[in-house]
Structure formats: C-alpha cells, structure tokens
C-alpha cells in the first residue's frame, strides 16, 4: 500500500467545497482543513504508484478551486495503529 499526503491551496472561500469533493474520491481516506501555508491536507492510501498518479493527476487536480498542490509520498509509517491491516480488509492481493 502506498500512503501519501497532498498539501493543497484553494481559492478564497472554497476550502469546504474542495474538501467535500476530495473526501468523495476513492483512495482519499481523510481531508483536513489546516492553518498555515496550506488550506487542506488530503491523506491518500492506494494500492500502487500507478493508482496514486491517476488519483492525483486525473481526479484530484481536476476539482475546481484548487490553486496549488504538493504531494508527499510516505516511505514508512510509524503509528500505534496497524493501518496496513485496517485498509487491507476485503482487498485482493
């Protein structure tokens, strides 16, 4: 499983609208509105790099209101939760 975070900036006044649209996309597990340089952080968990590329370039960035994005791909996950196992339920290998 590939985990990634996408830092997003939106047009003024469109944060909630963009967040709701992002949260509807398969592969995006959470969307956070945040304070600081970015407006939103989307957490992506997908099967492979090809699915990640498709989600970011063919689906996410076509949502109106996004002005800028930066994608961070996780090398390793350090967590109290076994995220790999949680998201593998029902997944074919």
- Following the backbone from N to C, one meets helices and strands in this order, namely EHEEHEH
CATH classification, class level:
Alpha Beta
| Radius of gyration of CA atoms, rounded to a whole number | 13 Å
Structural class by sheet pairing and helices: alpha+beta
State the end-to-end CA separation: 11 Å
CATH superfamily: Lrp/AsnC effector binding domain/regulation of amino acid metabolism (RAM) domain
The CATH topology: Alpha-Beta Plaits
* Apparent shape: globular
Please give the count of helices.
3
What is the average per-residue confidence, as pLDDT, rounded to a whole number? 90
Task: Give the strand order, joined by hyphens, for the main sheet.
Answer: 2-3-1-4
State the helicity in percent bands: 25-40%
Question: Could you name the ranges where pLDDT drops below 50 across 5 or more consecutive residues?
Answer: none
Q: Tally the beta strands.
A: 4
Task: Give the helix/strand layout.
Blueprint: E1 2-10, H1 15-23, E2 28-33, E3 40-46, H2 49-59, E4 66-73, H3 83-88
Antiparallel strand pairs: 1-3, 1-4, 2-3
In short:
The protein has 93 residues and is of the alpha+beta class. The protein is built from three helices and four strands; from the N terminus they run E-H-E-E-H-E-H.
Give a verbal description of the structure.
By secondary structure, the chain is of the alpha+beta class. The chain has one domain (2-88): 2-Layer Sandwich (Alpha-Beta Plaits). The chain is built from 3 helices and 4 strands; from the N terminus they run βαββαβα. Strands 2-3-1-4 form a 4-stranded antiparallel β-sheet. The radius of gyration is 13 Å and the shape is globular.
